[in-house]
Amino acid sequence: xxxxxxxxxxxxxxxxxxxxxxxxTDLKRAFDAGFVRAVVSxxxxxxxSVDPTNIYVQDxxxxxxxxPFPASPTGFLAKVLSTKTFQVAxxxxxxxxxFDTSTNPPNGWSVDFINIIVKNIGDNYNVNLHTNWxxxxxxxxxxxxLALGKVHAILPNFVTGGFYNGTRRLEHFIPxxxxxxxxxxxxxxxxxxxxxSIIKSASxxxxxxxxxxxxxxxxAFFPSSFTVYxxxxxxxxxxxxxTRYIFDAVRSGAYDISWDNxxxxxxxxxxxxxxxxxxxxxxxGFLNNELLNVPTPHPxxxxxxxxxxxxxxxxxxxxxxxxxx
Length: 325
What we know:
The chain folds into two domains: 198 residues, D-Maltodextrin-Binding Protein, domain 2 (3-Layer(aba) Sandwich), CATH 3.40.190; 98 residues, Periplasmic binding protein-like II (D-Maltodextrin-Binding Protein, domain 2). It contains nine helices and 13 strands. It is 31% helix and 21% strand. Strands 1, 4, 5, 8, 9, 10, 11, 12 and 13 form a nine-stranded mixed sheet that branches. It has a two-stranded antiparallel sheet with strand order 2-3. The longest helix has 20 residues. It starts with a helix and ends in a 37-residue tail after the last strand. By secondary structure, it is of the alpha/beta class. The relative contact order is 0.18.
């Protein structure tokens, strides 16, 4: 009986181990191995130093020995190595210095970082890997391409808790290590005496933001008496001018608070004052989970999958803040 009991327990343990390991394809193991080596080498710090909004949130231990490359590549990793091409999807948008997909290949430190990870993978297998970028109009299309196996990965713009076609994204795709993160900003008029605690105890203030995801976060974050306006619902606003439009609205007093927007380029925060909301969101990329069947992609973008860009071609949103819901 004791032997039988031990056998049953071992069988349960083995089954649980197989279920956990099934979530880690060779492509996932190789990508994370390449990422950790980019962190240890200093490439991550060097590249991301140009982005003052980026915060390194560590969820993969920066110890190379913990993340070995697969000795005998299978599945998508084997295909990547045989074709010498790593297929990556990104959606249209521009958020310097993080990324700019107005050109192909795109530019930005996050793009350079992905390229270094891919190079690390190739170097380990003595293969000269090339990163091929496909630019889609929306994030939904990126996930559809990933579901169909047209691409191996998508740019690290997303949180793990988002959805794809109505179900949790983690049920269909494999996340990478957290590649970046940043806090969710609050900007108020510089002349105000507001602090976070004063704001949270106030009533009737007006918040302006961009994207359904950001708007939903603002509704959950601020008192229920606050009014939250998503500027992307106004089709007359040029997506390239969203940040300037929002900051001007706060400067003029038309709105009290800017939520989840950051100044860069010509869109300065002059006349405004930054307040840290205390909310930090790590951003990951997603890899195709070749071990699972995924649902048929929707023909049109789904509001629950579009992230803060809401399935639209939105400009001037920092990539670490484009969070899929």
